[in-house]
């Protein structure tokens, strides 16, 4: 794998503020790297004109003696479901072809205000429906460590772009593991923050009670700096919560005496041997460093995947009902009347996975089935939340594998949707509970494929989670 190496975000920004490096040169470099890596298909769209304009503005501020911000001149890539000026926002789906957003996501605005420059839109599973980025209407993304394998999903383009070194960081979304799983598959750090910590305004919705926005980066410190810029309430998103009074840019936590629980249900027989080996080695390293590691049982996690694939499709069926080809996006011009327009536009615009989730979601919400499926799933979700709350009263953090396997072969699971859904089995509980969770690289298997460790903590403890991630990062 040919990989470009970027400096840490704070060092890049410091160089730009000093005037020793120009933002325009960093932006041009990132655009050139993206063009040279087209074989991996990580990017759907480059935002060259807009990016160069922003870079020139950063450089003008430096020349005037103004502070361009803590991320001055840092280029990054946003997942295609973020609304960004300068190009279309299609969420990986052709049904949104031609949709140019009239406003930007709050996350993009905050990064721009901090001096960061969005240079491109990352490939993704259409509407974030998938665990492999094979559901994209713009082609499959290839894993940077093995081009015959997937990068994970649905933020596969974002994770692969960071792993290839196209940009120092990228934005992803995580509804059921879509930041953590591709981060694990691509050997980078990914954070799913506490639900509501980062505004979802201007991000194309999948499952509104599950969606989280987070950074993917080469280091925990870089991700923490991005969170520092993004975190906090937004009047455009009523679900946002107060940020920490302390900075998210933190130091490694002392492992001595730290209580860490291994989730019993996460290390079952379904986890591959190479994942278990890397996980067990990390547990041994934590114990050697003074951590108190014990086993913790969360019985409802066995029901979490089934629960998720009722609640999530229900929310998908509601969120995707707005795509009718009338107001924006793809429209089938051969339609004879309004009903025919809906049928043809949605029939040809939505992919197989979107249709599958719409049908499942509509079914579980329909009269006679709501109580049997959706209501029961919400009951299980409440049970799971209480189990996590109970666990965090006794221990500081929970750990487990991110995924049952390393990155799988392209096409290996596409013919069996259930097999693909099982790739989310270890990540969906954190989304259902709304707690922060992260994927930290802990090594490679014998084939040279990356393996990630999943960290989880109580709601609103994102800063401490980042501190633990830094400590584990330092063990390797």
Low-confidence stretches are none
N-to-C SSE string, H for helix and E for strand = HHEHEHEHEHEEHEHEHHHHEHHEEH
CATH fold description of the domain at 9-230 = Amidase signature (AS) enzymes
Strand content range: 5-15%
The general outline is globular
Strand order across the biggest sheet?
A: 1-3-2-4-6-5-10-11-9-7-8
- Give the number of helices: 15
What's the architecture of the domain at 9-230, going by CATH?
A: Alpha-Beta Complex
Distance between the termini: 21 Å
Q: How is the secondary structure organized here?
A:
Elements: H1 9-18, H2 23-36, E1 43-46, H3 48-64, E2 75-79, H4 106-113, E3 117-122, H5 156-164, E4 169-174, H6 180-186, E5 189-192, E6 212-217, H7 220-230, E7 259-263, H8 273-288, E8 292-296, H9 301-319, H10 338-349, H11 352-365, H12 370-392, E9 397-401, H13 417-421, H14 428-433, E10 437-444, E11 450-456, H15 462-475
Parallel strand pairs: 2-3, 2-4, 7-8, 7-9
Antiparallel strand pairs: 1-3, 4-6, 5-6, 5-10, 9-11, 10-11
Q: How does this model look, in words?
A:
The chain is of the alpha/beta class and 476 residues long. The protein has a domain at 9-230: Alpha-Beta Complex (Amidase signature (AS) enzymes), CATH 3.90.1300.10. Helices cover 39% and strands 13% of the residues. The chain contains 15 helices and eleven strands. The protein has helices at 9-18, 23-36, 48-64, 106-113, 156-164, 180-186, 220-230, 273-288, 301-319, 338-349, 352-365, 370-392, 417-421, 428-433, 462-475; strands at 43-46, 75-79, 117-122, 169-174, 189-192, 212-217, 259-263, 292-296, 397-401, 437-444, 450-456. The chain has an eleven-stranded mixed β-sheet, with helices on both faces. The chain starts with 8 loop residues before the first helix and ends with a helix. The model has no long low-confidence stretch (mean pLDDT 96).
